[in-house]
Amino acid sequence: MSTETRDIARTTTPRPAARLDSGPARYVYGITYGSMHRRYVGLGLDGATVYAIGLGPIAALVSNVATKRFRPERGKLAAHHGVIKRCAGEGAVLPVAFGTIADSDDAVREILEKNREAFLEQLNGVRGKVEMGLRVAWDVPNIFEYFVKHHVELAALRDHVFGKQRGPSHEDKIELGRLFDHLLGEEREAHTEKVEDILSARCAEIKRNPPRNEREVMNLACLVEREALKGFEDGVFAAARLFDNNFAFDFNGPWAPYNFVSVALEL
């Protein structure tokens, strides 16, 4: 089973912050509790030191920057997510979108002041928890032929459409595709419910993300108590035993809870 990165969503939209123009700019990585006053030397973008700017019960994780715009290059994205991962390993963190820059310390404090309640609500919701990802895919050479083999109605329509002497019309192909999509959706729903029945007792919350391609059965984000990770993994293996070799299971993490928080800042 492999590990790979994934990303966000639940909406508690913070109010916009005022724009202040004094002092050096600050790159904002995430929001955490005010008690998390740590320094991470060399961890930030371009090797900058990451530190916390606090205001009462909450704080922003930032580093100094000489520019107010960054391209989403691989190295900079890796540094951004590396900071969030490191900090999330030590406490609750609300990830902020890549490229979020405030004008000064005062501007950061203004953000914290205006959004204090929204940030605290989300921090309390994910405290002591991490995100785990689970993807399940059909591991077959041809997904359409697999469905033809397992659904007599699809096989009958395929044979009818392509058995015509004049060949299939555009409408015939649309009808065939519509039936395939319908059956695909039905199987995805049934399989996902089967997995969720096992994992729901082991997760604080489960979020369904859209499948990335035709072969993907489900793409789940699971919010799990950090102390219950072993139970979650056991649940994944128990769920996998309900499926045959035509299915591949891949779980990954732990991550910061990208899919269970939303920090939408306007600077």
Distinctive features:
alpha+beta, 267 residues, 36% helix, 4-stranded antiparallel beta sheet, Alpha-Beta Plaits, 5-stranded antiparallel beta sheet
Protein model, in words:
This protein is an alpha+beta fold and 267 residues long. The chain has seven helices and nine strands, in the order E-E-E-H-E-E-H-H-E-H-H-H-E-E-H-E. Strands 1, 2, 3, 4 and 5 form a five-stranded antiparallel beta sheet that branches. It has a four-stranded antiparallel beta sheet with strand order 7-8-6-9, with helices on one face. Helix 5 packs antiparallel against helix 6. It is elongated and about 75 Å long.
Beta content: 15-25%
Which fold name fills CATH's third level, the topology of the largest domain? Alpha-Beta Plaits
Give the overall average pLDDT: 89
Radius of gyration: 23 Å
State the secondary-structure class: alpha+beta
Largest sheet: 5 strands, antiparallel
Count of alpha/pi helices: 7
Q: Helicity level, as a percent range?
A: 25-40%
Q: What is the end-to-end distance?
A: 40 Å
Outline, from the CA principal axes?
A: elongated
Chain-wise SSE layout:
Blueprint (H helix, E strand, L loop, with lengths): L24 E9 L17 E5 L2 E8 L8 H15 L4 E3 L5 E2 L2 H10 L1 H11 L2 E10 L4 H8 L1 H11 L7 H30 L5 E5 L6 E10 L3 H12 L6 E9 L12
Antiparallel strand pairs: 1-3, 1-4, 1-5, 2-3, 6-8, 6-9, 7-8
Describe what is shown at a glance.
The chain has 267 residues and is an alpha+beta fold. It has helices at 74-88, 105-114, 116-126, 143-150, 152-162, 170-199, 229-240; strands at residues 25-33, 51-55, 58-65, 93-95, 101-102, 129-138, 205-209, 216-225, 247-255. The strands form two sheets. Strands 1, 2, 3, 4 and 5 form a five-stranded antiparallel sheet that branches. Strands 7-8-6-9 form a four-stranded antiparallel sheet, with helices on one face.
